[in-house]
């Protein structure tokens, strides 16, 4: 599904790229500096892992969350967006030497700041963005096997592609796709069950596919 959505957004964006330089000086002042969006977002990890000693891979659940973003426009085309949301995922180690291991769940708080370029053609307003993310792991539930779990907070890069559709002077609809290139080091203290502490290098790399409504001041 994420590939289909991404392809559709790219197809909608292409006709507008050549028009970006045609905006007149007067048009540059005809925009709202502040925009707010509320989205429902599907968070789909594109996960993989290198697990010490026992081998195997990782499985991280897909989840749906609300997301709030705040956008400030420096010019009609150039903006910065702060994306706020938190998500909970179930985690398992799979295909290991000792079988599947339920590692409980963990919450992620990934505030993300992107710089954006917006294109204009009537009611359709596509945009491209890139920026940085800092993910905080918290609220770990170790599950039935581990005595303790530690996830390292980390900085990652973010890419963004989206489309606003204007309804009236203030309200608009939004479709947005983001990709975070997120990695974390995990330490699993499984002394009671396995007699060892196991480390893992985990790539989470989630896709975030959102749809929602926005308001501009």
Name of the level-1 CATH class: Mainly Beta
Shape: elongated
CATH fold naming: Porin
Strand content: over 45%
Q: Based on DSSP secondary structure assignment, what is the total number of beta strands?
A: 15
Give the name of the CATH architecture. Answer: Beta Barrel
**Into how many domains do the coordinates divide?**
1
Write the element-wise H/E pattern from the N-terminal end onward: HEEEEEEEEEEEEEHEE
Radius of gyration: 20 Å
* Proportion in helices: under 10%
User: End-to-end span in angstroms?
Assistant: 33 Å
Question: Mean pLDDT, rounded to whole units?
Answer: 89
Protein name: OmpW family protein
Pfam families: OmpW
Signal peptide: 1-20
Keywords: Signal
How is this structure best described in words?
This protein is mainly beta and 217 residues long. The protein contains 2 helices and 15 strands. β4 and β5 form a beta hairpin. The chain is elongated, with a radius of gyration of 20 Å. The protein starts with a helix and ends with a strand. About 6% of the residues have low confidence.
Which descriptors would you attach to this protein?
single chain; 217 residues; mainly beta; Porin; eight-stranded antiparallel β-barrel; four-stranded antiparallel β-sheet; 2 helices; elongated; OMPW; OmpW family protein; signal; OMP/PagP_B-barrel
């Amino acid at each position: 599904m994420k590939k289909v959505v991404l392809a559709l957004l790219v197809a909608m964006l292409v006709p507008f790229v050549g028009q970006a330089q045609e905006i007149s000086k007067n048009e540059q002042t005809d925009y709202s500096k502040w925009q707010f969006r509320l989205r429902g977002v599907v968070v789909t990890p594109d996960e993989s892992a290198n697990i010490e000693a026992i081998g195997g891979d990782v499985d991280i659940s897909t989840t749906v969350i609300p997301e709030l973003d705040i956008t400030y426009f420096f010019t009609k085309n150039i903006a910065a967006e702060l994306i706020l949301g938190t998500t909970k995922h179930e985690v398992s180690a799979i295909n290991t030497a000792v079988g599947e291991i339920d590692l409980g769940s963990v919450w992620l708080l990934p505030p993300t700041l992107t710089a954006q370029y917006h294109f204009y053609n009537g009611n359709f307003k596509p945009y491209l963005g890139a920026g940085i993310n800092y993910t905080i792991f918290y609220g770990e539930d170790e599950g039935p096997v581990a005595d303790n779990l530690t996830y390292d907070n980390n900085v990652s890069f973010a890419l963004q592609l989206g489309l606003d559709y204007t309804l009236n002077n203030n309200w608009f609809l939004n479709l947005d796709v983001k990709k975070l290139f997120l990695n974390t080091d995990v330490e699993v203290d499984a002394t009671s069950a396995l007699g060892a502490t196991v480390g893992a290098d985990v790539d989470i790399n989630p896709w975030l596919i959102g749809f929602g409504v926005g308001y501009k001041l």
